[in-house]
Amino acid sequence: QLQLQESGPGLVKPSETLSLTCTVSGGSISSSGYYWGWIRQPPGKGLEWIGNIYYSGNTYYNPSLKRRVTISVDTAKNQFSLKLSSVTAADTAVYYCARPGEVGATTWFDPWGQGTLVTVSS
Amino acid sequence: SYVLTQPPSVSVSPGQTASISCSGDELGEKYTSWYQQRPGQSPLLVIYQDTKRPSGIPERFSASNSGNTATLTISGTQPMDEADYYCQTWDSNTVMFGGGTKVTVL
């Protein structure tokens, strides 16, 4: 059974870089042929897609975040990571990692990780 | 940018039918998915490719997509169906979510 688990600091200072990692178990990032994604949800608000990455490193980003986002993959560790630079309080959110539902495509997301809350505050 | 519009809230009595709309320009030309999110939990996929239910999702969840509107229908709504529901689509490798609808079972 595929499982995803987010990890990283729960508190980041304004103007710094938010860094999170998603560890995949029950399946291989490199051999599965799937993209892997990040989605966030500010407290009390809706879902916002951040971006997707393929095991080869090919990425797609939300145009509204593209300037500040980098998603990378480490196939040896079966992990993919998110970096969001120059954060402000508006970046405070629960960050989820998830897998699109079809091989080699951007589609629906299933399954999702449990999410991790990142607060931006000095 | 492409926008998906959902009503903020829907109320339904137990055992009745709840319908949640999701509107977007020519949405019927794209695939739509739906997620259920209970408080404190991760989103759960309940519908994909407009009408398909993942394994384990009850048959009371159904959906359609035509024209500019996709609709999620919950038949025989149960108290456990009280949650936020989000529609989602994609185009040219860009993903969009609706703003979410809070379903209250009164």
**Major beta sheet summary of chain A:** 7 strands, mixed
Mean pLDDT of chain A: 95
Secondary-structure element sequence of chain B? Answer: EEEEEEEEE
List SSEs of chain A in N-to-C order: EEEHEEEEEEEE
For the secondary structure, the number of strands of chain B is: 9
Basic shape of chain B: globular
Distance, first to last CA of chain A: 39 Å
Give the end-to-end Cα distance of chain B, rounded to a whole number of Å. 36 Å
**Protein chain pair with the most extensive contact, residues per chain:** A-B, 22 and 22 residues
Percentage beta strand of chain B: over 45%
**What is the share of helical residues of chain B?**
under 10%
Rg of chain A over CA atoms, rounded to whole Å, is 13 Å
Shape of chain A: globular
CA radius of gyration of chain B: 13 Å
What fraction strand of chain A? over 45%
Task: Supply database-style keywords.
A: 122 residues, seven-stranded mixed sheet, 1 helix, globular, B: 106 residues, three-stranded antiparallel sheet, 0% helix
Structure overview:
The complex is a heterodimer of chains A (122) and B (106). With 122 residues, chain A is mostly beta strands. Helices cover 3% and strands 50% of the residues of chain A. Chain A contains 1 helix and 11 strands. Chain A has one helix at 29-32, and strands at residues 3-7, 11-12, 18-25, 35-41, 48-54, 59-61, 69-74, 79-84, 93-100, 109-112, 116-120. In chain A, the strands form 2 sheets. In chain A, strands 2, 4, 5, 6, 9, 10 and 11 form a 7-stranded mixed β-sheet that branches. In chain A, a hairpin with a 6-residue loop joins strand 4 (35-41) and strand 5 (48-54). Chain A is globular, with a radius of gyration of 13 Å. The N and C termini of chain A lie far apart (39 Å). The model of chain A has no long low-confidence stretch (mean pLDDT 95). Chain B has 106 residues and is mainly beta. Helices cover 0% and strands 47% of the residues of chain B. Chain B is built from no helices and 9 strands. In chain B, the strands form 2 sheets. In chain B, strands 1, 3, 4, 7, 8 and 9 form a 6-stranded mixed β-sheet that branches. Chain B starts with 8 loop residues before the first strand and ends with a strand. The interface between A and B is medium-sized, with 22 and 22 residues.
